[in-house]
Prior knowledge:
Shape: globular
Distance between the termini: 22 Å
Helix content: over 70%
Strand content: under 5%
Number of helices: 22
Radius of gyration: 23 Å
Order of helices and strands: HHHHHHHHHHHHHHHHHHHHHH
Oligomer: single chain
Amino acid sequence: MTPKHAIAKNFIYNTLFKVFQLGTPIITVPYVARVLGSDGIGAYAFTGAVIGYFALFGALGVLQYGNRSIAYVRDNIEERSRVFFEIFTFKLIASIIALSAYIIFIFTFGGKYKVLYLIQVFVFLHNIFDINWFFAALEDFKRIIIRDVIVRIISIILIFTLVNTKEDLNIYVFILSFSAFISSLYMCACLRDKIVFVKPDFKKIFSHVKPMLIIFVPVLASQVYAVFDRILLGVYAGESEVGCYEMAQKIIMLASTATMTLGVVMYPRMSNLFAKQDFVVIKGYIGKGFRFLHFLSIPMVLGILAISDDFVPWFLGDDFQKVPLVMNISSVLIFLNAWGSSLNNQVLMPMGREKDVAINAVIGAVISLGLNFSLIPHFQAVGAAFSAIITSFILRISLFYILKDFLPFKEMFKEIWKYLLSGLIMFVIVYYIGILMPASVLTTFIQVLTGSIFYFVISLVLRCEMNKLLIEKSLEVSGLGKKLNLYEIGSKK
Length: 493
């Protein structure tokens, strides 16, 4: 399998993984939103935000650091086994300490949420045994997606079967938390043919502390402006407002899946290329990667703006009337998150510039805290949405400045006007359909299908490079390219 073929295949696997990861709650949302209401969803989002901080201290940046460390030695089974056991042992120690602190917090400050907090102990157990970073470093995304599909399908069945009234909130939270724990145990069982046992050396275990903490700083800072807004909303506005904000952000995150996946897929590959100092290939990947992100993210942002008013009423129900406004404001995050994921995962982290990532993230956390404390008390969920996009915009501009001497800007933003023009024409058509038809499942389906067709056709007429690449890669991955000789013909040209 060629490197380009592997990237295309891994991108598809990782996109499917993210879709199922975020798609499980999205698939169940129309049902759960009506059964639990905005208060129930808000309670889960609020407690989840709190436990997220404790779990974060248990993970200590292992996802990024472990991925990169294994990628460096992935071709040597002895070395990758040694590195794996060292990192896993350190993570185990950190998780036990964090879990102990969490248990103390529950019985001291748990209050009316004590039972919800206790149920989510399984989130900690999931984090302890979560070794997706190891398989991601080996670019073995197929195994991850198969596991995730099976576990999440079972969880969907359990939710529809067991969650029937507002009093079933605890059951809903248990299903989500326990299914995550089971999925982690499954991946541990898949390690047998990937590593050999190497007894961890405690001196070497703690040699990972410094670089891991450097990575942990931006992860912690990112969590401040990614999750802390839910906590402030819960304090200042109540569970219902948290529920509306949470639903809007879940929909935005699902739409962001494909754009953010590229950075994750490319991380181990770019780490390997930076180790070889193959800068010509690196800049080629960066340029093409950004053009692909623009090709996907621009129609997504404009599409959400066009369909939100017709989509939310039938999808969430009357309890979430504020969601369309929050969604529209937050839609630009699809674009900004794509930039951030690529710059961090394709460039800064593989280059070993964790300090730059850390400084950028800390600046973002400070800005986010200031904006959230200023806006949320007055504007509630709308204030939180504006805080998120302002913070993200400042951070992306900062990253571009940090990398101004390295990034191939001309290649990165090539043809962007074509995607904007195609997207704007698509927006007018999709929005007009919403005016002519009542809010319903059928209307949203027609809007999405029509918008996708018009965007693809218009960008094809404008001879966008990404159309040809998408067709070629789809044929290549499916195996039809060789049968039809289309890929070879395209390559010869």
